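Worked example 3 (structure in, sequence out).
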C-alpha cells in the first residue's frame, strides 16, 4: 500500500515516490528531473539550494513543502525536535502526528485556498492552530502558516509552510482563561475592534452568552452619548497619558443602564496585538454616592434653616431685652426718682430710693449690653463687617486687650 499524503492516499504500485526525499540536497535534483508542477517547483527550490540548506539546518520551526497533488516533498530536520519522530518516519507518514480533526482542518484550508486560486483570486492564508501528538504521547500545540509556492510566471507550483510550537503560549492562555473565569471582576479581550474573549463574570453582568458577544463590537454595549468619551479615555490610557480608571454607563441585563469603572492595557493574544479590558460594576456605589449627595444637600438646608431659626430667636430675645425690659426699667427708675422726691432729702428712705434708681441704671446697661451681644442692631443696619468691628471695639473697652479686625473690602 502506498504512503499517505495530506490530500489523500498515495500510489499503490509500490514505487518510491518523491514524498520520501528527506533533505534539500536530495529534493532539489528530484524536483528538477520530474516534469509538470513538480519540475517547476524543483527549479525554484534548486536555484536557492544553499539558502534552503542553511535555513533547514538552523531553523527552529518546521518547514515543509507540498506539490500540487498534496504530496509532501520536503521536511526540515527540526521536525524531529518538535514531534520526536525521525525525519524518515515523518516522511514515511506525514500525518503520523496529526489528529483526525487536524487533518480535516488542514485539507479544508488548502482546498479553499486552491479554489480561490482557480477563480483567479488571492487570499492571505490565516494561521491555523493544530494539536499534534508527539511520539512519546505528549500533546503539542502548533501554529501553521503556509502560502503558495510560485514559479517565474507567477503560477502555483507547490505549497510551502512553517509549523511553530506554541504550547507554552497555549498553556499561558489556558491559565489566563482559568484565572479570568474565576475572577470576581469582568475581563474581556478586544482584537481587530471586536470581542475575542469574555470571562464568566462579564457574561453574568451583561446577561449574554459567549456566542452572542464574541465577534461583536464593544461600543454597541455602551450608552450612545458615552461612546466618544470612552474612546478618548481608552486611547489616552493605552498611550500612557492616563493611569486612573474611567467610568461610564453601558447597557446591562434586561436593557438596564449600569455604571462601570474600567482599565485597559495592550497585550498579545494568540500571537497578535490586542487590548485587555477589566471593569467593575459600580452601579451600587454610584447610587450610594447620589444618595449621600442628596443627604448632604438636605443636611445643609437643615443646618441653614436651624441657623436661621437661631438667629431669629436671638433677634427676638434682643428686641425683648431692649424694648420690653428696657421700658420697664425706665418705668422703675421714674418711680424710684418720684419716691425720692416725695420723701425728701432729709428722709432715710431718700437714700434707698436713690440707690434703687442707680441699680436700675446698672441693670438697664447690663440688659443693653446683653442684647447687643446677642444680636447687635448694627448687624441689621450696617452689615457683618461693621458689626464685627464694633464688637472688637467693645471687647477692647471691657478687657483692655487690643483686638484688630482685618476684613476684605
Amino acid at each position: 500500500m502506498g504512503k499517505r499524503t495530506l490530500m489523500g492516499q498515495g500510489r499503490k504500485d509500490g514505487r518510491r515516490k518523491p514524498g520520501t526525499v528527506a533533505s534539500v540536497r536530495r529534493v532539489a535534483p528530484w524536483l528538477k528531473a520530474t516534469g509538470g508542477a513538480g519540475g517547476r517547483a524543483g527549479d525554484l527550490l534548486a536555484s536557492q539550494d544553499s539558502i534552503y540548506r542553511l535555513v533547514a539546518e538552523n531553523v527552529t520551526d518546521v518547514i515543509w513543502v507540498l506539490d500540487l497533488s498534496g504530496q509532501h516533498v520536503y521536511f526540515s530536520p527540526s521536525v524531529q525536535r518538535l514531534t520526536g519522530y525521525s525525519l524518515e518516519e515523518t516522511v514515511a507518514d506525514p500525518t503520523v502526528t496529526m489528529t483526525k480533526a487536524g487533518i480535516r482542518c488542514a485539507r479544508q484550508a488548502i482546498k479553499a485556498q486552491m479554489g480561490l486560486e482557480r477563480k483567479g483570486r488571492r487570499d492571505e492564508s490565516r494561521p491555523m492552530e493544530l494539536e499534534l501528538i508527539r511520539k512519546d504521547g505528549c500533546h503539542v500545540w502548533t501554529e501553521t502558516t503556509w502560502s503558495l509556492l510560485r514559479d517565474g510566471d507567477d503560477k502555483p507550483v507547490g505549497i510551502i509552510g512553517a509549523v511553530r510550537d506554541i504550547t507554552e503560549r497555549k498553556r499561558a492562555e489556558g491559565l489566563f482563561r482559568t484565572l479570568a473565569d474565576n475572577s470576581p471582576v469582568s475581563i474581556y479581550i478586544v482584537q481587530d475592534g471586536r470581542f475575542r474573549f469574555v470571562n464568566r463574570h462579564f457574561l453574568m453582568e451583561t446577561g449574554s452568552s459567549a456566542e452572542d458577544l464574541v465577534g461583536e463590537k464593544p461600543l454597541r454595549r455602551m450608552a450612545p452619548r458615552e461612546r466618544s468619551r470612552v474612546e478618548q479615555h481608552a486611547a489616552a490610557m493605552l498611550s500612557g497619558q492616563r493611569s486612573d480608571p474611567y467610568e461610564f454607563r453601558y447597557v446591562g441585563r434586561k436593557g438596564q443602564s449600569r455604571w462601570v469603572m474600567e482599565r485597559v492595557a495592550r497585550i498579545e493574544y494568540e500571537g497578535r496585538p490586542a487590548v485587555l479590558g477589566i471593569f467593575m460594576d459600580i452601579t451600587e456605589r454610584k447610587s450610594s454616592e447620589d444618595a449621600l449627595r442628596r443627604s448632604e444637600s438636605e443636611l445643609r438646608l437643615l443646618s441653614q434653616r436651624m441657623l436661621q431659626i437661631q438667629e431669629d430667636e436671638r433677634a427676638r430675645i434682643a428686641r425683648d431685652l431692649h424694648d420690653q425690659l428696657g421700658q420697664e426699667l425706665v418705668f422703675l427708675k421714674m418711680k424710684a426718682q418720684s419716691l425720692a422726691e416725695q420723701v425728701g432729702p432729709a428722709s432715710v428712705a431718700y437714700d434707698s430710693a436713690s440707690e434703687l434708681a442707680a441699680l436700675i441704671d446698672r441693670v438697664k446697661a447690663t440688659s443693653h449690653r446683653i442684647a447687643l451681644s446677642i444680636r447687635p442692631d448694627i448687624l441689621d443696619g450696617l452689615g457683618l463687617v461693621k458689626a464685627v468691628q464694633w464688637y472688637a471695639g467693645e471687647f477692647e473697652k471691657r478687657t483692655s486687650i487690643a483686638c484688630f479686625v482685618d476684613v476684605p473690602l
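Notes: Residues 7-38 have pLDDT under 50 and may be disordered. The radius of gyration is 48 Å.
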